[in-house]
Design brief:
Rossmann fold, 2 domains, three-stranded parallel sheet
Length: 367
């Protein structure tokens, strides 16, 4: 993911937004750190210094901020030290490996009065902005249901993401925070309850023991009686499915466009048309905020938002609390599947339900 962050910096730089100076890069694998340093040197005047230990980097460099993209199990340890050192932080999602770990980061940021932004980029695409705009305009009527299905076949092992103690869960957690964020952002409603079942059909992949699920089926109930149905699996050979649709009382909207139910026909508009309609409706300052200098790369714009939040002393669009609420939905699935019953999202957020997460917290010393 850090490659995408470097590309985002490149895009900002190429459009005249030379708002970051990358002074140092750090990776436990020195060759990867050197690779990123050389990529950065291609668009900025100097090559960043290379480190393999981030605490050594903090001791030797005068930094204002840090961009963190690491396995989930070390988010809280690295972010906490950076926040204590007085650095503003942007961190890849999910904010923490568990709700308790994420809460620790939130408290560190609050205590040290530093900006904490979470790299939640899906909502920033023109298409997802346009879907929110369509709902705000009432184009599909009152929202009723969301259907997200991502089913396919992925037989290979996926490194640390196969390990519950490193990743916290499968892609339904790692990527599911994206979908939870989209639901909340586009509906402008909070989840109240979830129910889920999970299974690991293939506990060994390429000789690697898999300790996370490879299928999750879930129901999410949102405020105002809006219902979401989620399916994620990597254990579905033969036919792939990838769709997300929001249904309302008048029609539906998704990444393939807008569909309005008329009496005897369905009126359709392509996503390109919907995006164009949204852009035409935006005020100049809104365009500059969401798409600075016309940039639509979602990682570039999230980095710009982080910069703007620091220099203008305002919360970033996706701050720690927003990301914390995103996490509660997929982690709620794990708690529900573990307990074999529906669970309240409020109980997950307030740490009243941590049965699935308890083992992870104990293993990693999170208290």
């Amino acid at each position: 993911m850090m490659g995408a962050h470097v590309n985002g910096l490149r895009q900002l730089h190429s459009r005249g937004l030379r708002i970051f100076e990358v002074k140092a890069v750090c990776d436990v694998k020195e060759s990867l750190a050197k690779e990123k340093a050389k990529l950065v040197a291609e668009f900025q005047d100097s090559e960043p210094k290379v480190y393999t230990n981030f605490e050594e980097m903090l001791r030797h460099e005068s930094l204002d901020a840090v961009d963190i993209a690491l396995p989930h199990n070390v988010h809280h340890t690295v972010a906490n030290i950076c926040l204590e050192q007085g650095l503003d932080v942007i961190i890849e999602k999910p904010l923490g490996i568990t709700m308790r770990a994420a809460r620790i980061i939130l408290e560190k940021a609050r205590k040290n009065n530093k900006v904490l932004a979470v790299a939640e980029n899906y909502r920033r695409s023109p298409e997802n902005r346009a879907i929110r705009w369509a709902l705000e305009q009432g184009l599909i009527g009152e929202p009723r249901m969301i259907v997200w299905s991502s089913a396919g076949w992925s037989p290979g092992a996926w490194g640390w993401r196969e390990d519950k103690y490193a990743a916290g869960g499968s892609w339904v957690f790692d990527g599911g925070v994206h979908l939870a964020d989209l639901d909340r952002y586009q509906l402008r409603k909070e989840a109240t309850e979830v129910y889920a079942v999970q299974k690991t059909f293939e506990p060994v992949r390429e000789g690697v023991k898999v300790t996370v699920d490879d299928v999750t089926m879930a129901i999410v109930i949102y405020e105002g009686d809006v219902y979401a149905q989620w399916l994620w699996t990597r254990a579905a050979p033969g036919k792939a499915i990838n769709l997300r649709l929001i249904y309302g009382s008048k029609g539906a909207v998704g990444n393939d466009g807008l569909f309005i139910q008329r009496e005897n026909l369905i009126e359709t508009q392509s996503m390109n048309t919907l995006v164009s309609r949204m852009f035409e409706s935006l005020r100049t300052e809104e365009k500059a905020k969401w798409f600075p200098k016309g940039i639509t790369d979602t990682v570039a714009t999230e980095l710009y938002d982080f910069y703007d939040s620091v220099v203008n002393h305002r919360p970033p669009e996706v701050d720690g609390l927003e990301a914390y609420r995103d996490m509660a939905i997929p982690l709620g699935f794990y708690e529900s599947a573990f307990l074999k019953k529906p669970v309240s999202i409020r109980d997950v957020e307030e740490l009243r339900i941590e049965e699935y997460q308890k083992e992870i917290n104990e293993k990693l010393g999170i208290s």
